[in-house]
Amino acid sequence: MRRFFSIAILGLSASLLAASCGDDNSSKAADNEVVTPVEKKQMGEGSTGIAMAFYYQDSIATQFGFYKEVDSMIRAKELNFQKELEAKYRAYQAYEADIQKKMQNNEITGYQIEEIQQTAMQKQQSIQQFEQQRGAALQNESMKYQTALMNKIAEAGKEFSNKKEIDLLFFYQKGGQITFINNAYDVTDEFIKYLNKREEDLMSGFEDEVDALEAEDLN
């Protein structure tokens, strides 16, 4: 099966993954698994118990294979863009240096100066256009991959929550909106194992989902 690559940090808007209780009949790995439900906690006097859990986002970014591939792909594209842009700047600088040298050697006549100025302006505009257009296109493409990956993790999060009888699953990261979480609710290791176990299934159709997001923008 074809592998996909790229990155990114998922927005906090994807942090809450609500899931109903029950077993996941669609998961192929469920047959021989021993499932330990998360204990339901009382939220207040007279309230109904709710099972909550969280995972560390940074751990997903470093330990989920597919996430790392997507991040790696985006970084590689960003690096290539930067290299192309730097090459264009170096070429322009070489052009300027050559013109300066010719002027110092009196190799450029007065009537050539206007033409040289126009050429220099065209080269500058070409670089600016490349930086703006390619940069914007790359940013847009990165967002599509991030959104598609977020959707895949949300899909897996719902399945995982169903298996574990979790009512509320969210992620935690430093600097986020959550100040403190008791480690008793931490299911990071289990969720990462689940993600990596289902990696091929999550990768299936990923490129099609990215293309669908691109088509939505075009429409």
UniProtKB/TrEMBL annotation:
Coiled coil: none annotated. InterPro entries: Chaperone_Skp, Skp_dom_sf. Residues 1-18 form the signal peptide. Pfam families: OmpH. Keywords: Signal. One of its GO terms (molecular function) is unfolded protein binding. Gene3D superfamilies: Skp domain. This is Outer membrane chaperone Skp. It comes from Brumimicrobium oceani.
